[in-house]
UniProtKB/TrEMBL annotation:
It comes from the Bacteria. This is Uncharacterized protein.
Length: 121
């Protein structure tokens, strides 16, 4: 089993790249959906190596927020990041049977209804 620090660093490095506001602010709702699920799939690869906690995701959120100034962008894409982080916290730091024991396609279908313009996206 990999150490916590190694896994957290891998995930955070991926989030730094993916949550670059230059790219994030230009995504349509459908593109954001695809992006959202690809990040979930990436993090899901690590689920059996280390059980991520709510504190891990708060750390991710704080690190990303301090790395980029999302307020400089017209659509305030921090709302997209916040929506994403809220879902990460709920899905990955909550004990089973949430994300860990579900079929990924079922998970995607359940979550798709949350992607609307009025939801900060």
């Amino acid at each position: 089993m990999e150490e916590r620090e190694v896994i957290v660093r891998k995930i955070l490095e991926k989030l730094y790249v993916e949550f670059n506001p230059e790219n994030l602010s230009k995504l349509s709702i459908d593109q954001y959906k695809d992006f959202f699920f690809s990040i979930f799939e990436y993090i899901n690869l690590h689920k059996n190596k280390y059980h991520l906690t709510e504190e891990d995701f708060v750390e991710f959120s704080n690190s990303i927020h301090h790395r980029y100034n999302y307020d400089e962008y017209e659509d305030n894409c921090w709302e997209r990041v916040a929506f994403f982080m809220d879902e990460l916290i709920f899905r990955f730091s909550t004990p089973p049977p949430y994300f860990f024991h579900s079929n990924f396609e079922d998970f995607k279908n359940k979550l798709k209804r949350d992607f609307t313009e009025g939801n900060g996206l």
